[in-house]
Amino acid sequence: MQVGMAAIRLGQFRLEVTGSMITKGCLTLSITLSTLLLFSLSFGDDGKQPPRPVPEIAAFRIQTEPPVIDGNPDEAVWKSSGITYARNFLKMRPDEGKPSSESTVVAVLYDDQALYIAFWCYDSQPDKIKRQLDRRDRSPEADLTVVRLDPYFDHQTGYNFSVNASGVQQDMRIYNDTWEDSQWDAVWESNVKMQPWGWSVEMKIPYSCIRFNAKEDQTWGINFSRYISRNNESDRWSFSPTTEGGLVSRFGHLTGLKGIKPVRHMEVLPYVVANAELSPKVLGNPDGRQYTGNTGLDVKYSLSSSLTLDATINPDFGQVELDQPVLNLSTYETFYSERRPFFLEGSNLFDTRFTLFYSRRIGRPPTGSVKDSELAYYTDVPKASTILGASKITGKLSSGTTIAFLNAVTADEKATYAAIHPIINMSTGDTTKIDTVSRKGLIAPKADYSVIRIQQDILSSSNIGLIMTMAGQDGRYPAKTGGLDWRLNTKSGVWGFSGQTVFSRTDNLHTGFGIAGSLTKDAGKHIRGEIGMNILDPHLNLNRMGYLNRNNLREGWIWMQYRTQDGKGIIRNTWNNINYYAAWNYEKANIENGWNFNSNIDFKNNWNLGYGISQDFYKYDDLETRGNGLWERPRSWSWWASLNTDPRKPISININPGSGGSRSGTWWANYIGVTIHPKSNLQFSAGTNYERYFHNLRWVDNQTDTLTGQNVPLFAELDNNQITLDLSASILFTRNLSWQISGEGYMAGLDYKNVRRYLGGKEYGPLGDIPLNNYGRNSSALNSTMILRWEFQPGSTLFVVWSRAWGGDDDTVSDLRLSRDMRKLFSAGADNLWLVKASYWWNI
After folding, report:
1. Rounded to the nearest 5°, which phi and psi values hold at 350?
2. Are 360 and 342 in contact (CB under 8 A)?
3. Are residues 749 and 813 in contact, defined by beta-carbon separation less than 8 angstroms?
4. Residue 18's pLDDT is what?
């Protein structure tokens, strides 16, 4: 749960909304709810099951040549005497615990370089095997095989390698037993082959892409899974019911590994990139064209069997895909997800309850300005701070200690600008001429960013951790933050207690503190839940290197869920959630107080229905006036629903309507999306959300009353008419060669009416001598990207990219007109970028 924010996930089985019960007036309610939660969750639904034997499979050492990875495990080595096979898979869904509908057999071989896995996926209807093609690390709807490994045998961390029936690879790191990092990438081999009896898979997983301890005799955790698309069926070899918690801790055992050693190796990835940028013509760039090129080197080196160094020299940190444009009318900073590969890989190692490390802070757009009284206008402003270099060390020691360290350095950023320079006659002192000269001025000083994270495994599937960050920049006080976190789970994985304490020091006057904690029931046949709290003092500031949307907060929440998996009638599963949340600031103003109920239903035809209602009774908003006192906020209510058709079909549809009352007005919205798979290698998706807000009371400005000298907050009624758009299409020529185009944008008319001053409480008054300004506008933006991607050999890639970004506001109109605003989105004046990038992977 993100600190300080209400988080509502429509169409998901779980909906969480934070709040607080940490004030004196709600202490009794908090204790009562806590007692009821613990009692209800403990009584008769603790997720306990009779102990089951842990399945084992022995790896067979190859004495001859290793098998050719062609997808057809017909070599003699796969039939050697002494090989053991994994069989007797059980269903995870539907009909949990019953034998799988089709037979699956798996074998494991090994030598001094790699692990080899073969799947024989028998199928009584081989012509119905789903073979959707997609790019690597995507999850198309297709039949699938998965192997999961726990080489450290710590029951908390591991790796996930999957191959679908079209040969598409996906890999992940697993941590904290059940959490997954899909950004982790490794270089490994696989292939598939369609057979008269079904299909088969071969994988080769080199030891160089996984980590394990140096021991003569090894036992690893392992599990195998298979997904049969037409039945929406997931099968697993080492079965554990969903009433029990855990993933890695429920693996079977891989035995028989002898004499293998962790590989110390080096991966080198040089790259070269060429750019052509076509932008609107400006005085400093009259033809609007700019051509650049760059080259650099990424290195991954095994410092030991447990630690790996990643370094990048003269890195290319340009984003291949653009961010989605957002119309943000809230008081919170927009949070953008990371897209740069260096920061994505292993990013989970720095994840904690509070976001102390937000990697988008590194290389952010400069926000400063030139200090020059003769400044006339800018002719060239850098769009991002240049990252001179970055490195990180990550790994897990045999003692169960995980270590992660990252450092990055950014350069001085200078803007080019035109200055009006007077030429003065030194003898008379008169200005004889005024000349315009080009100059460069500093707008962002060089900066250094560091973060270190240490986590220690303790007890069973539990850990404690420490994180420290520091951001230093010329001319600014170095910002330091740190925290201690914990994740304590019962041995069964049913109960968990997690939390974190943090501090910040961003100036020489104040130190801020924060604490978060929650008690969670993560498993059980029917009942799950959570109770938690956050306390953030007014001086807590994580935003130099992390992300915190607000401080000055005491909040708490309680969530309870009743789920069914009995498969009665047309219904397969249901998740029914109720939440209560409340919050106060340190001045005891009630800024959150509400509840919601939501339900999610899976049908046996693979359709899904979700719906919910909510009510908020908070009294105040302490941020709306942007530092000008409390605003007494009107109560609100809402309902929403979602309907998703079967995603396995050639055409699937998502409909998501909702409406409510908010800010003394009303609103309604409806999202409609469609995904089309005309062929196994073609995909098209489009969606649009249409929102209407009526008489929505919002802050627009703070103005000075010339009679009293007071700074007065102004409010107006907003009529907002907005359409958001998303569109994507892809063609997969092969699993390694793909073409994709995508676009995301919005169009909005914001009409502010009845502007008035806020007098406090529920009172508003006329503007008086305050001038009436125009706050209405039409706003629109569209970001689009086209990518041709060719992985010409494992780990080596060629990108050809075109991206276009357009956005702007027009304060001469405040309505939404579809034809006019659509023309704007495709009009001239956009920033266009053509990019060609090639990288080549060496394993040394």
Report:
1. -105, 5
2. no
3. yes
4. 35
